[in-house]
């Protein structure tokens, strides 16, 4: 048997009794030396002993210990958040789902890392026992997780709103129930209206059977609001009560502005003279044509005065209107004779020689016109309707809640609204009368159009008036320079003659 390799039998198990004279085995993992009595010199070293808890990689047997415990108790799979889609159970013919079900057109499904999916979309954070022991040694209880039922973005905005109010929820609810305007202002009430729970959120909170103390701040706030009967309607009445005085004052101011603007336009004698002057100029320009001999003109014709230019292209009819509407000084009148004006526009000299009063500043009579032109009667009507509707909601809430604070508010508010209704009716009549004052049909030329045209005309008139003033000042300076130049020439010529005479005498 010398020279042949004989397989060495495996070492005996640790439980076997030790034969006499055998050296005790070394610790696991250390290769024991061959016994000295062995006659096999070329035999390979025996395989190392298997340690406890380690399995044989090549054999089917498993070691005992930790590895066995892990195999027998696999980790619990974390529950994933659902995707709330509408499932298609039957693919429509011609759709991509029907085409995908065909054997030749099946798209390859992507490989999904389930462990990554669980870590990203699990309903709760799963932490292993070893990790908890490593990070929080001595802590065996996990902190409970906050439950969020409301959309996270809406919940975050709600929490931000609550931090701005800075008031305990019970105090806030009591202020809402009592409609106490000394505790909550309009901005706070408007924010509360925005974050009233919807029907879906109310049903979701009612269906929650878990520990309500573990809900988020937004959910806790919604639960408190749900205790208030008709919470959204009550909050809207609350907001109406807070803003009622301001809303009524603004509406009254706008209505009064329209009345004042209408009155000042119709009572302005200067504006009446300007309109008459324009009519005279127009008939003079249109003499002998179909447009001549007019008894009046449409209001939008005021905007065309700047389109009619003089023959020398240096001035418009608007500039000329300003010129003849202004009482010029005697000195400036001599520099620009009426004959020249008559030739430019072919206007009878008898009209130009007529004295005209100082109507150049007729815009000073129209104090409220520009403010009135920015007011829309339709919006005023909508504001009146909103106030009436708000009073109806107050009456309904008073009947349901019996809050005495609403009773006194309602009595005073109804008196205010009655006076507003009377003022609104008066404004409607005056607005129509303004269009009729200029010969217009209120249905075709409403108040807003009348005031808009008048404001544009006034601004055009003022611009031409200022340009005339600048031109007159420039002309005056020019004449003064020419006068100085002529005087200088006369003095120079006189000095030359004196020198000539003196030289002759010498």
UniProtKB/TrEMBL annotation:
Pfam families (alphabetical): FH2 (PF02181)
Keywords, alphabetical: Coiled coil
InterPro entries the UniProt entry points to: FH2_Formin (IPR015425), FH2_Formin_sf (IPR042201), Formin_homology_domain (IPR051144)
Compositionally biased residues, Pro residues: 7-37
Cell inner membrane recorded as keyword: no
Keyword Isomerase: no
Domain FH2, chain residue ranges per copy: 70-487
Membrane-spanning segments: none
Superkingdom of origin organism: Eukaryota
Amino acid composition bias (Gly residues), ranges on this chain: 52-66
PROSITE patterns reported in the protein's UniProt record: FH2
Residue ranges that the Swiss-Prot or TrEMBL entry lists as coiled coil: 462-491
Residue ranges of the region described as Disordered: 1-82
Family indicated by similarity: Belongs to the formin-like family. Class-II subfamily.
Protein name: Formin-like protein
């Amino acid at each position: 048997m010398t020279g042949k390799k004989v397989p060495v039998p495996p070492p005996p198990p640790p439980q076997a009794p030790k034969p006499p004279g055998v050296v005790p085995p070394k610790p696991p993992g250390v290769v024991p030396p061959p016994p000295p009595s062995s006659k096999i010199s070329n035999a390979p070293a025996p395989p190392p002993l298997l340690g406890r808890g380690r399995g044989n990689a090549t054999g089917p047997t498993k070691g005992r210990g930790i590895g066995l415990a892990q195999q027998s108790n696999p980790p619990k799979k974390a529950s994933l958040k659902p995707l709330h889609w509408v499932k298609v159970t039957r693919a429509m013919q011609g759709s991509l789902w029907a085409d995908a079900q065909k054997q030749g057109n099946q798209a390859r499904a992507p490989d999904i890392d389930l462990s990554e999916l669980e870590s990203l979309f699990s309903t709760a954070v799963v932490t292993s026992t070893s990790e908890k022991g490593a990070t929080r040694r001595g802590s065996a209880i996990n902190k409970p997780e906050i439950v969020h039922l409301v959309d996270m973005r809406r919940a975050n905005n709600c929490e931000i709103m609550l931090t701005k109010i800075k008031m305990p929820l019970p105090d806030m609810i009591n202020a809402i129930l009592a409609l106490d305007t000394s505790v909550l202002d309009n901005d706070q009430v408007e924010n509360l209206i925005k974050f009233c729970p919807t029907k879906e959120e109310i049903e979701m909170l009612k269906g929650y059977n878990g520990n309500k103390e573990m809900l988020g701040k937004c959910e806790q706030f919604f639960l408190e609001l749900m205790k208030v009967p008709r919470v959204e309607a009550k909050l809207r009445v609350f907001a109406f009560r807070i803003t009622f005085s301001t809303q009524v004052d603004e509406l009254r101011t706008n209505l009064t502005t329209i009345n004042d603007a209408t009155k000042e336009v119709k009572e302005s004698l200067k504006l009446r003279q300007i309109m008459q002057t324009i009519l005279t100029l127009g008939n003079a320009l249109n003499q002998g044509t179909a447009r001549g001999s007019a008894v009046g003109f449409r209001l939008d014709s005021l905007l065309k005065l700047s389109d009619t230019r003089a023959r020398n292209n240096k001035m418009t009819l608007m500039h000329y209107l300003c010129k003849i509407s202004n009482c010029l000084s005697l000195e400036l009148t001599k520099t620009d004779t009426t004959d020249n004006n008559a030739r430019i526009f072919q206007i009878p000299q008898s009209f130009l020689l007529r004295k005209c009063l100082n109507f150049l500043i007729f815009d000073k009579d129209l104090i409220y016109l520009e403010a009135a032109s920015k007011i829309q009667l339709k919006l005023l009507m909508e504001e009146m309707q909103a106030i009436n509707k708000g009073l109806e909601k107050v009456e309904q809430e008073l009947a349901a809640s019996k809050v005495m604070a609403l009773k006194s508010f309602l009595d005073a508010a109804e008196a205010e609204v009655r006076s507003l209704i009377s003022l609104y009716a008066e404004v409607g009549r005056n607005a129509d009368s303004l269009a009729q004052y200029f010969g217009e049909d209120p249905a075709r030329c409403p108040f807003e159009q009348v005031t808009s045209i008048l404001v544009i005309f006034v601004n055009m008139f003022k611009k031409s008036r200022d340009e005339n003033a600048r031109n007159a000042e420039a002309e005056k300076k020019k004449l003064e320079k020419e006068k100085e130049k002529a005087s200088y020439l006369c003095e120079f010529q006189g000095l030359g003659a004196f020198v000539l005479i003196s030289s002759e005498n010498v």
